[in-house]
Design a protein that fits this description.
Elements: H1 2-30, H2 38-61, E1 71-72, H3 74-91, E2 95-101, E3 106-107, H4 110-126, E4 133-143, E5 146-155, E6 176-181
Parallel strand pairs: 2-4
Antiparallel strand pairs: 1-3, 4-5, 5-6
Helix pairs in contact: 1-2, 3-4
């Protein structure tokens, strides 16, 4: 019964999200200069993300969930996620730096990376004070029996608790707030 209730509520989100996305696309055609598109791009990417999550929920409900792993430019994809946070970071007067040391294309799940990065950046931003610094670094990991990538976030705020650490993090001036490898 809970699942049916939740499914019905989820269905109610699709139409408004689709209408917002369509309106955003219409506004883009009205604006002549690409400089005016920044806020529309942010709205469009986030509405698209919500629609992807909606579709993923439906897949789970019908037991048809599959991992979506296209090949693509992982560094550029992460850069777009970082862009979505620029306005919030600027409002708090925080310096956000993104460094990608990735070359070539990678297999990765866009939905999962988006979720991880959004959660991680939102938490770091929440714990950072005005005038602070956040550095996001993406690099290739080339170890004898494991190739992959590492996403590191360093901040001047309270820091995030390490995924493997059991003690709360203290102030982390210059220390990684979080590190994820895969």
């Amino acid at each position: 019964m809970k699942n049916n209730f939740f499914s019905n509520i989820i269905h109610e989100f699709r139409t408004p999200l689709t209408l917002i996305l369509t309106s955003t696309q219409q506004l883009r055609r009205q604006f002549r200069r690409p400089d005016d598109w920044h806020h529309l791009n942010v709205i469009e990417r986030n509405i698209s993300q919500l629609l992807r999550q909606y579709n993923q929920w439906l897949d789970v409900e019908t037991h048809a969930a599959a991992v979506n792993e296209p090949v693509g430019d992982l560094g550029a994809f992460m850069g777009k996620i970082i862009e979505d946070f620029q306005e919030r970071v600027s409002a708090k007067k925080i310096d956000l730096v993104y460094r990608s040391h990735l070359s070539g294309e990678f297999w990765f799940d866009q939905v999962m990376l988006n979720r991880i990065a959004d959660t991680l950046l939102a938490d770091v931003l929440k714990l950072s004070s005005a005038g602070g610094h956040i550095t996001v670094t993406f690099e290739e990991v080339d170890q004898p029996n494991a190739d992959g990538v590492r996403l590191m976030v360093a901040d001047s705020g309270l820091g995030c608790q390490s995924w493997t650490d059991t003690k709360p993090a203290g102030p982390s001036e210059g220390d990684p707030g979080a590190e994820i490898s895969w």
